[in-house]
Amino acid sequence: MAGAPLADTPSGLRAWLLSAEPHSRWQARLGRFYLGWRAFSRNPLAMVGLSVVVLLILVAIFADLIAPYSPVVGGDLRTQRLLPPNETFWLGTDDQARDIFSRIIYGSRITLYVIVLVALIATPIGLLVGTVSGYLGGWVDTVLMRITDIFLAFPRLILALAFVAALGPGIENAIIAIAITSWPPYARIARAETLMIRNSDFIAAVKLQGASTPRIILGHVVPLCISSLIVRVTLDMAGIILTAAGLGFLGLGAQPPMPEWGAMVATGRNYLIDQWWVAAMPGLAIFVVSLGFNLLGDGLRDVLDPKAAK
Amino acid sequence: MIRGGGHGSALRSVLKNVAQFIIVLATTLLGLAAVTFFIGRVVPIDPVIAIVGDRAPPQVYERVRMELGLDRPLIEQFAIYLKKAVTGDFGNSVLTTNPVLTDIASAFPATLELATLGTLIGVIIGVPLGVLAAVKRGSFIDQFVRVLGLAGYSIPIFWLGLMGLLIFYAKLGWVAGPGRIDVTYSYLYTPVTNIVLLDTAMQGQWDAFWDAFSHIILPACLLGYFSLAYISRMTRSFMLNELAQEYVIAARVKGLSEMRVIWRHALRNAAVPLITVIALSYANLLEGSVLTETVFAWPGLGQYITNSLQNADMNAVLGGTLVIGAVFVLLNLVSDLLYRLLDPRTR
Fold it and tell me: N or C: which end of chain B has fewer CB within 10 A?
């Protein structure tokens, strides 16, 4: 952004944000954020991605208000079963005479639940393994990284399948299985960052002051690794959604009658030829949401990592 | 970089690479076995009760427990498990009552056939698309490749498969439905390699061949699309890298035609990292085949694992997981090794 001619006499807030001599750490941070946002918002595809993600969150929060029908209790089984999309049931009804639109709306909660929990479980594991491994080095590093490589070597869906098989089907177990298979890339990134931080002067200074190793790792190394991890987690969200949907499709994720999108596609499979909408609509929802996360992640990467922006 | 010793050092570096390769392979496979062993341990089903039933007297329970070796220390159990896994003994499948290895051996060719055809489609279409996107950067075709790639990373594969079946099988009738071959044709040839396209072609059963072809083409195109999305994206970025190099400018200055510069000079150099990418995408297709095979009722390894899963047949699940994991690791490492051997710069 250096050297870009600023707009003629920036107004109050912008001048404050773009100030070359910020008066507080807070102001400097907000200024950087503003510059990042400006670069990000210039990318239309990234903005589309952001809107999809924001929409997903809003829909999940206000599902009760948006959905016209219950996601679990169906209508009249004699007259309202497997209806094609119409004015009352926008996306049609399924085999239990439930409104597919309402089920998709409520399903957004499950999707959000899965990605938030996976991120909350996998990121700290990866962060801890990576920073400890990078900071301590030596045999700890070798052992931890070999373990990481082994988990990376396994195809993700198949490892998750094996875990769910052992733990038993269900949404919580699916989340645990996906989290167990997601942390290795985060550990790799955190380790790479730690290796760069480890030899800086400020770490040496903290060490001379007598800080313990856990204190240095948790208080000084971890915070610096978080930002690059966030980008990576965002980029992974689409993969997490697809894995969760795949597990749901195989009947190993959320159990009926939960309106999980992958499981809904699996139901629709039985009526594919004559009532295509039962399978098509939830799959479309999965597609749109993971596309949104992919676009958002791409945009974020372009802003935060100019080298990869090619 | 200083090169010393000519032939001798080149050979030594190859040997060193191979030795490293074997060590990494061994530790990773050991790790894979440890993971599947661990998963087998955390199963909430007590394997003894699964055999004797929950009303068996305690002495019987104890005897079976000892026979299964469950009374020994965990590390000893793992050693036994490892010894059996190395000899290919994963126990018997509860579902089919065959040894798991026999089941896997009969299911694997189907997966191999599908994944190979998928990768072929991905390479044949993906590489030229990626090259074109890099050469005509920012053009319509570049945008097209970008969108194709993004969609490939976002579409649930099982859903696309179902939609493909709906359109091309149910509505248009261009391809055959789920399964590998129609029953009427399945007696016309004798399975030798268990790769149906190969078997039927070699035995001259062309009717059966075309039927098998119309069964495989849709799932293969599906896997091919996912492989294409990845391969074209990577080809583009490798080509962009090469096209910016000085030797490309030199070749142009020499007066070579643009075709020759792009397809002979630049692509040849981009081909080395591409091999890694292709091997990786091949490995990924093995994974993608789990869902695809379920959708298309394709009797491969993926369907075997999911079927066993739904019937809590842990021996089969863990054996299958270990085999797919091992193939995955092997493909990854082979691609890495190939890369080092083919690219003199890495020596």
Answer: N
